Amino acid sequence: MIPSDSSLLEMAANTTPGLQIQATKQCISASQNISKMSTMSFSFASKRKSFTDFRSSSHISLMKPIHSVKLAPIKFERMVTKAMSGASEQVPVSGLPIDLRGKRAFIAGIADDNGYGWAIAKSLAAAGAEILVGTWVPALNIFETSLRRGKFDQSRVLPDGSLMEIAKVYPLDAVFDSPEDVPEDVKTNKRYAGSSKWTVSEVAESVKQDFGTIDILVHSLANGPEVSKPLSETSRKGYLAAISASSYSFISLLKHFLPIMNPGGATISLTYIASERIIPGYGGGMSSAKAALESDTKVLAFEAGRKHKVRVNTISAGPLGSRAAKAIGFIDMMINYSLENAPLQKELYAEEVGNTAAFLASPLASAITGATVYVDNGLNAMGVGVDSPAFTGLDIPKDNKS
Description:
Blueprint: E1 19-28, E2 33-36, E3 40-47, E4 55-62, E5 67-70, E6 75-83, E7 104-108, H1 116-126, E8 130-136, H2 137-148, E9 166-172, H3 184-187, H4 200-211, E10 214-219, H5 236-257, E11 261-271, H6 286-308, E12 311-317, H7 323-326, H8 331-341, H9 350-361, E13 372-375
Parallel strand pairs: 7-8, 7-10, 8-9, 10-11, 11-12, 12-13
Antiparallel strand pairs: 1-6, 2-5, 3-4
Helix pairs in contact: 1-9, 4-5, 5-6
């Protein structure tokens, strides 16, 4: 099962968890003859007696008068996380913080430092959460060796300059719920040699024995062995394999981890727009698996919310050139398509998905459950591809990159 899984710049040390947004990298968009809007500044102040007692105020101040001019090209700025400073257990951070101190997260599906799973782990860690990782068994040795030898150190750098710590890495194959489900050819496969207790139920039990409880569960797993085949040419075996690895695996994880999740906890999975729109080349039942995952998110939100007070959401992420995504074969084409057609003509960064996950896992999102949250530069909102020759001659705003 291939995990469907970004490096942040080193910043000032001696800061505490909590996130705020800082612009660090620019890219240019379209310029138009428009009325220049006045510059606005927003400030937020909060007081609280506890992590959940927020009282905020805001104000908008006009800095310059409004007048009509021809603007220079508007610049989009890359948004990254930066740790907030000046806080302690007695004095809370200023503003509206994403504070996950004292929380523990289990992220299933990290096998390298290149995808969304890793980015989510980093954002959760930056907000103060303790990180546990489940890694596909055949990739476990390479992952742990790379981690131990420092090959991931550059991409482990958090906004405060420290390195993300992973409390423990567990072998995991989420296709199998219990040892009884594992066929003999997998048990004797040399890629599984030396590893034990890697089925979903066994991993959940190991986490319980090692740490007791968790607060956050992240599903960053997907695999479709026939993804390159059109759906109409997909075999029953290939279709069911895609559903098993990419959507039922989330049900299984939730089933076995819910008993050790603290009330108020949150689960997050990753989906893709192919669940609801036609994406040629994304075949083998993968579009069906993502549609099932989104439907399951709603039903599981009801069940987990009523029984365990746990929230269930999924993030529909745009295309990312991760190692896992490159296995599909046309990821670069999808990235280019997004750059040409999305409302925001900029690259999608893994940490933008990570930051959204940190928000959804935090008390700030305490009323959000059963939701599919799009993090794709707005591509999901488009009904047509505006780079089509059919739109030649229309006055379509474009990013002025010159």
